[in-house]
């Protein structure tokens, strides 16, 4: 039997630290992924990500399991810079790269696409 817990605020045992449920629901990451693109592409860790597509050297697409409410969500990225060269970039691949159910990236160093062992993506916004 499923149950529902209805609260307005979460607090610790001493009631010193509390947070409104609206903040928890609105401010939490809705999806994240740690992607290894070396060798066979793999999700080393993820939440609300149902798929990873290797789109070629230095390129990948994440499929979001529970779609975002619209394509105007926020995301942040980080990666392992494998060289000391200037110009490593992990970027979204154009306007079509951000959709409610997926997001695509390219990893470049010195204007060349490269695979990297640690590519981290966090997605925030409203779920559909």
- The string of secondary-structure elements, in order, is EEHEEEEEEEEEE
Category by helix and strand content? mainly beta
Give a count of the beta strands, DSSP E runs of length 2 or more. Answer: 12
**What would the principal axes of the Cα set say about the shape?**
elongated
Mean of pLDDT = 84
Helix content: under 10%
Distance between the termini: 26 Å
Low-pLDDT regions:
none
Strand content range: over 45%
Characterize the main sheet: 6 strands, antiparallel
- Rg estimate, integer Å: 18 Å
How many H/I helices?
Answer: 1
Describe this structure in words.
The protein has one helix at residues 21-27; strands at 9-11, 18-20, 31-36, 42-47, 49-56, 59-64, 74-79, 89-92, 98-99, 102-109, 112-113, 119-124. The relative contact order is 0.24. The protein starts with 8 loop residues before the first strand and ends with a strand. The longest helix has 7 residues, at 21-27. The chain is mainly beta. The strands form three sheets. Strands 5, 6, 8, 9, 10 and 11 form a six-stranded antiparallel beta sheet that branches. Strands 4-3-12-7 form a four-stranded antiparallel beta sheet, with no helix packed on it. A two-stranded antiparallel sheet has the order 1-2. The chain is elongated, with a radius of gyration of 18 Å. The chain is built from one helix and twelve strands. Strand 5 (49-56) and strand 6 (59-64) form a beta hairpin.
């Amino acid at each position: 039997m499923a149950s529902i817990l209805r609260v307005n605020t979460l607090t610790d045992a001493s009631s010193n630290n509390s947070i409104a449920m609206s903040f928890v629901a609105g401010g939490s990451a809705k999806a994240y992924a740690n992607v290894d693109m070396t060798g066979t592409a793999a999700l080393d860790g993820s939440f609300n990500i149902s798929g990873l597509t290797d789109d070629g050297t230095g390129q990948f697409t994440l499929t979001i399991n529970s779609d975002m409410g619209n394509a105007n969500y926020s995301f942040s990225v980080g990666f392992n810079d494998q060289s000391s060269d200037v110009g490593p970039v992990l970027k979204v691949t154009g306007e079509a790269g951000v959709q409610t159910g997926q997001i695509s990236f390219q990893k470049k160093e010195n204007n060349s696409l490269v695979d990297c062992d640690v590519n981290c993506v966090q997605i925030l916004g409203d779920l559909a």
